[in-house]
UniProtKB/TrEMBL annotation:
Organism superkingdom: Bacteria
Main location (coarse class): membrane
UniProt-annotated location(s): Membrane
GO cellular component: membrane
Bilayer topology annotation: Multi-pass membrane protein
Keyword entries, A-Z: Membrane, Transmembrane, Transmembrane helix
Official protein name in the record: TM2 domain-containing protein
Pfam families per the UniProt record, alphabetical: TM2 (PF05154)
PANTHER family according to UniProt: BETA-AMYLOID BINDING PROTEIN-RELATED, TM2 DOMAIN-CONTAINING PROTEIN DDB_G0277895-RELATED
InterPro entries: TM2, TM2D1-3-like
Sequence intervals crossing the membrane: 12-30, 36-55
Organism: Portibacter lacus
All residue ranges annotated as the TM2 domain in the record: 11-55
Amino acid sequence: MNKYRLKSKIRNVGIAYLLLFFAGAQYAYLNKWGTQIFFWITFGGLGIWWLIDIFRIPAMVQDFNDPIFDEIEYIESMEQNRYREREQDRYRDRDDFKELRRMRAERSGNLLDEEWQKW
């Protein structure tokens, strides 16, 4: 999956608190619809569940975001590996090109052995 698409799925603690205080929809924000419906039916556990959630929201948001961050980290490490491989290939190609130029110069007689050692 695209890392920018994953970044758009990251949840914010502040928004979760706003949803808790104004709509009681913090579980819906974290894609826990079964728990959200139960929260609404019980009126937030008659307020007790609501009070407990005030302290639980940061951990719930972190638990939701952790797999997303892990996936983003994996994608970025793969991109860095591909970049390193391309850089190594680029330098490898330069060395091959240098060898090819030396062979052409020797074949044409434009390069003596002493000149190649200096080069």
